[in-house]
Amino acid sequence: MPDERATSAERxxxxxxxxxxxxxxxxxxxxxxxxGLTFDSIIEAYDFYNLYSWETGFGIRxxxxxxxxxxxxxxxxxxxxxxxxPKEPNSxxxxxxxQAMIRLLRTDxxxxxxxxxxxxxxxxxxxxxxxxxxxxxxxxxDKYTRELVSQLRENNVNLSKVYSILATxxxxxxxxxxxxxxxxxxxxx
Length: 189
Prior knowledge:
Number of helices: 5
InterPro entries: FAR1_DNA_bnd_dom (IPR004330)
Largest sheet: 5 strands, antiparallel
Strand content: 15-25%
Shape: flat
Structural class: alpha+beta
Protein name: FAR1 domain-containing protein
Low-confidence stretches: 169-189
Strand order of the largest sheet: 1-5-4-3-2
Pfam family, one: FAR1
Order of helices and strands: HEHEEEEHHH
């Protein structure tokens, strides 16, 4: 069984759905996970949740995963980096048993969907870009992606203008991929 489903031109990505629906939602974040949202791969889901965590002010990490009897991964959890207990009491660990997470389950066509989403945190969120970069999960987000989301949030840039800017520089939304190439991450996030 493949680790991801085959991409399809007809299928709209979760990121495209988030971008196009932002104007109507009137939420604080451009990217918001929800139960039932589907992804082609775990990497796509991780990047989606990581972008949400960057906007919100926390870091994420891989957590539990399960495999079926055939040895294929069928469940994956991403949790807040403050999830879990510190390994040693009275340590400077940032772990404080935070319950924020998403749980992904595999679809019949080898994709993934969000089965559970917990958004509540029991710790303070970080606000500045410099603070957010202390989280290991945010060190790999493309600089231009961070700037785009930051400016969109700070200046209330019209979403259609964001699309126009992306299309001008990168030749349309389908071409808005990060320099990582094969990983298939959208810069338009």
